Each structure stands twice: as structure tokens, then as C-alpha cells.
Sequence to fold (216 residues):
Amino acid sequence: MQDSFVHKGKRKILIEYLRNNLGIVDENVLQAMNVIPRHLFIESIFEDYAYEDRAFPILAQQTISHPSTVAEQSELLQVTTGDKILEIGTGCGYQTAVLVEMGAHVYTIERQKDLYDFASKKLRELNCRPKFQIFGDGFEGLPTFAPFDKVIVTCGAETLPVELLKQLKIGGIMVIPLGKTDEQILYRLTKISEREIETEEIGPCKFVPMLNKTNS
Ligand code: SAH
Fold:
């Protein structure tokens, strides 16, 4: 599959939809999503729908997030060039690619070996380089590389994973879905001090569950 004029045209329409209908204003987010070819991250049978606001099945019974979700989470992170970002749930690597394109230094973790392999290959093919990509359990974060400016979690945990909060720097932002399946809420947390977190409730959402340990 290639990135044709038709794909580029559809991508532009999606970007205008995100801007005009969903109120995404961060030009860096819109620009990055206009560059990254989403259709290359999903199975070819879904190619024609890749630039609709839809989620699709990927390997290991997981899903690529809706473009609107990727745009919203990326905007909530307030990414600036050179931000050191920890991503939990690499999945197919699309969100990772968007953050890299935005100029972030991305450290990403995936617990499904098939998806870790898929995303590694895909990102390499597209010459899109996260700083560090690991097959592991996101609940543990990456203490060796902490602290992070930002943390993005693309799967839903029932309660806030404390390790991830520890690895966020003071002043840092975490965007995370929390709560039981079917009752998840997307939050933006700002770490004011070691003891104080500012919590913003963004709204209801639906992510695949954050699961313990790895699955090879
Ligand atoms: N942003 C990804 C979303 C994939 S879905 C994309 O656009 O493709 C969320 C991913 O989180 C799944 O791939 C799932 O395997 C992964 N995941 C769930 N629990 C995890 C954990 N504890 N550590 C790392 N990844 C996890």
C-alpha cells in the first residue's frame, strides 16, 4: 500500500472535520495527523475507511483508537518540541507516530508481543523513530528513563497506576482513561507537587482494558 493523492485528500477532509466539528485547535496535532498515513497502520480491507472517524480491529483483539480520540488525547497533552513522553499501549503505533511527528521524544510500551513487533516494523518503514520502544508491562512504566514531561495511556485502568504518577515530573501532564469498562472517564492530571494533583474530568470514553503483565 502506498500513500496516494486519494489518501492525502481524504486525510485533509478528516483534519477539517477534527478542526471544525470537534474543535481541535492545536495546529501541531492537526499538522501531524495530516502527515501520518493512518491507512498504513490498519488492515488493507479497512483502507477505504481509514480517514473516517472510526476505530478498527488490529492484532491481538485490540483496536486502533478513533482519530478523534488520538487528536483529543494529543491536544490535552499540550505537546511542545522535545517533550519526553511516556506512552502506555503502543498498539499499532499510530498514536506513537503522531507524537513523534509533533516533535516529542516518545518512550512507548506494549504488552502484546504481536503488536510490539508490528509497530516496530511499521514505524521503521515510515522512518518514524520513537526514542525507545519496549515490549513490557505499562503498569511498571520506565523507571530508568523517568521523569517524563508527559504520560499518555491509551488503555483503561480501573484505578490510577501509581508508578506512572511517580514517573511524571512536577508540572507534568498525564492523560488517562480511568474506571470500570463501560464507565470509563478520560482525565487530564497535572502533577502540581509530589503530594498534589490537579484533576480535570474530560468526559466519558471507551478504551480497551489496561491488563497486567505481558502476553507473548
Ligand atoms: N494508540 C494505540 C491504541 C491501541 S489500544 C493505537 O492507536 O493503535 C491500547 C493498547 O494498550 C493495546 O495494544 C493493548 O495491548 C495495550 N495495553 C493494555 N494493557 C497494557 C499494559 N499494561 N502495558 C502496555 N500496553 C498495554
In short: The chain is about 30% helix and 25% strand. The chain has a mean pLDDT of 97. The longest helix spans residues 5-20. The first strand starts at residue 56 and ends at 57.
